[in-house]
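Our preliminary data section would be incomplete without showing what the modeling component actually yields. Below, a chain of 165 amino acids is followed by its predicted structure, encoded as tokens that our downstream tools consume directly.
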Amino acid sequence: MLWVGERTRERDGAHLEFIKGIGNPLGVKISDKCTPDKLLCIIDNMNPNNIPGRLTIIVHMGAKNLHKNLPGLIHAVQREGKSILWISNPMHRNTFKKETGYKTLDFNAICNELRAFFDAHDEMSSHPGGVHLEMTGEDVTKCTGGLSGVTEDTLKDHYHTFCDP
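Predicted structure:
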């Protein structure tokens, strides 16, 4: 799926203009900076005919901001009868840089954002459409916590990239 990020989705911007002309399903990333009015404008611009399956909204807000902001966005979409697919991307807003210089994610923060995403949809009688996760079959460490018990001290053991985790 082709998608437009929050920094490149200006209403009159080249990225949005290019991607909306493509016939494939499209995605747009939103954070807690997105208001209901902005979201409805994005939806109208990207899917003016309200075609089911055409537009996916990829939510990345962090758990605290998601609890506060997502219900209002869902309500606006429901009120206007817009057909979109909601996906959670808990990887994006939970990245932080350690004192060691390693960029990492906290496994519990990822789980908390996912829980908040599903709770908000349950609360609003909406359908959560999916989850975006980043994984590899390689033995790497990019997240702290979780079942493997990676800590700040052991993060470096299998950290093989300096790109965003």
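The radius of gyration is 17 Å. The first helix runs from residue 14 to 20. Preliminary results of this kind motivate Aim 1 of the renewal.
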